[in-house]
Amino acid sequence: MQEFDPHVLEEKAVPPPLEFSKGARVKSLDEYRRIFDRAAGDPEGFWAEQAEQLDWFEPYTQVLEWKSPHAKWFVGGKLNVAHNCLDRHVAKNPARMALIWEAEDGAVVRLTYAQLHERVCRFANALKSLGVKDGDCVAIYMPMIPELPVAMLACARIGAIHSVVFGGFSATALSDRIADAKAKILVTADGGYRRGRVVPLKDTADAALKNCPTIEKSVVVKRTGEKVAWESSRDLWWHDLEKSASKDCPATSLDSEHPLYILYTSGTTGKPKGVLHTSAGYLLQCMWSMQLVFDLRDSDVYWCTADIGWVTGHSYIVYGPLANGATVVMYEGAPDHPAKDRFWQIVEKYKVSIFYSSATAIRAFMSWGMDWLNKHDLSSLRVLGTVGEPINPAAWKWYNGAIGKGRCPIVDTWWQTETGAIMISPLPGATPAKPGSATLPIPGVAAKVVNLQGRPVAPGETGYLTIQKPWPAMLRTIYGDDERYAREYWRRIPGVYFAGDAAQCDKDGYIWVLGRVDDVIKVAGHRLSSMEIESALVSHTSVAEAAVVARPDDIKGEAIVCFVTLRSGHSPSGQLRSALMEHVAVTIGSIARPADVRFCDLLPKTRSGKIMRRLLRELAHKGGISGDTTTLEDMGVIERLAKSQGQDEE
Ligand code: ATP
Ligand code: MG
């Protein structure tokens, strides 16, 4: 592959705030390197050492059994994930706060570890009373309410496999996922709240269940109290079940490799896949990465703003934090309800100290302006995190200055549904940040940027992001399609895990994730990253968000088409369009000068908030969309984009 123009990616390193480093778990880059080298020299010994932090019912006999591409971690060991997330903390400090849940209307539910434990045990017994046995699949389709983590942990307690389907998905998306996982029980709610409106979840679930012969019972949480249709042979109220169930439910002793859950990826690239995660290795890496990457302390109040319907919520709202006995904030609703300062109100109210959000949310906050922040005391914050997409350097700097006030290290965490836990990230007290780079792999993770033959590429050259050795939280397979698992992840570059992302490694060994391999643009023989051009656009004062794609061009091979949304106070004009084209050309080089800039009110995104360049590519190329749009957040976006295209072409 040819070299990228390094302008945007060449950011100066920002050292961790001195005060922070002094008290951090890992205090310097040297210390990080020592841990990293030790882990790289003996990964199995290293992970075995970390695994002492788990409560085992029976010890394992072998750390890793690797028959490529299949891994078993902690072979022969027995444990229970829910026991590790609850019982052992209850034994030490039952009154410790586990979950602080804030409803969209401001109502609050606080659950100590003892209370959460009791609710989980009751619901686990309820599931048993419905005939759920270990290995059975339970589908969960719920709003962000406390019963959602309770249901997941109840499954884990008895060895049932959960499959959480994001509450914003349609009936078809839900029934497809239920059918694929052959779920026996559905757990849902009468409805949820989003921006003050009732979302009729049960109606959607009922529509889905028309096509789900495997489902025997549907358990319904009463959240809104709205009238709902009721199928008395199938539907059961959660509160009735919970009330009549015993609060004693011993945690089942399960194999290290017992399946914990199936989770379908968000579908930025096409049809969702059921990623299968198992117990011990997954829990270990979630737990341990929390400690290192967020520098977690007993005194922390931790808030991850993701929806539990995505892997970030699984690993970093539920399993990682609770395995550590952390205090977790969970919020039901939207960031702009009732106003655009809702998140900052929550940070102030609960004195949140660790805040973990997405690149897309940060760009939205940035476009909303400072007034919303200035009303609130954010001094409790000490670590900021981001995930989901490359964060544009301009958004990184804004996060650092406006939210962190320069005091809080930012951890830009790269990982995937498939990796289960964080893989590449700064350690907040140790790693100098470079805005836009996820920096260095965490200890125990062998990440490398290579070419198609598997050889490392030179610094500044673009290649493929790979993981060279199995890691504890890795997916074990694609549920029901092991052949696809081997083909997609392990055969493209023989013998190593291929993440599907394009990346560069700089001279300091820092990894720059450039986005998906499919999103790389080839102009006149040069390979340009969509992320780099987007970052150039976002660095312009008028631009809130940008998505850059290629359309075929007779002369150059591909031409660059930019879709941009503007910050509040700016409006589209021909003049601004030319200014943006010029800005990209000046920032990156004339090779990157866009052929077109289109203004739009919103970009098409997945329901997890990621830009769907695949659809924009189709739009730029063919003027319309025929590809799979089932994971699109707002169906109207494409229509509006297609229209605005017509108007623009005066
Ligand atoms: P699908 O695989 O179905 O297309 P998805 O890849 O969006 O969906 P996830 O597993 O949630 O689903 O996202 C992982 C991807 O998100 C990574 O492969 C990468 O492209 C991107 N990503 C996540 N975190 C970062 C980050 N910190 N920096 C850059 N990219 C990131
Ligand atoms: Mg993916």
Structure at a glance:
The chain has 650 residues and is an alpha/beta fold. It folds into two domains: 18-432, ANL, N-terminal domain (Rossmann fold), CATH 3.40.50; 524-649, ANL, C-terminal domain (GMP Synthetase, Chain A, domain 3, 2-Layer Sandwich). The chain contains 20 helices and 30 strands.
Ligands, ions, cofactors: adenosine-5'-triphosphate, magnesium ion
For the record, the CATH class of the largest domain is: Alpha Beta
Mean pLDDT over the full residue set? 93
What best-fitting shape do the alpha-carbon axes yield? globular
Measured as a percent range, the helix fraction is 25-40%
User: How big is the Rg?
Assistant: 24 Å
The parts where pLDDT drops under 50 for at least 5 residues are 1-8, 646-650
Which strand order does the major sheet show?
12-11-8-6-7-14-15-23
**CATH T-level topology of the largest domain:** Rossmann fold
- Report the sheet-strand fraction: 15-25%
CATH superfamily of the largest domain: ANL, N-terminal domain
DSSP E strands, number: 30
In terms of structural class, how would the helical and strand content be classed?
Answer: alpha/beta
Distance between the termini: 38 Å
SS element count, helices:
20
Question: How many domains is the backbone divided into?
Answer: 2
Which CATH-level-2 architecture of the largest domain? 3-Layer(aba) Sandwich
How can the largest sheet be summarized? Answer: 8 strands, mixed
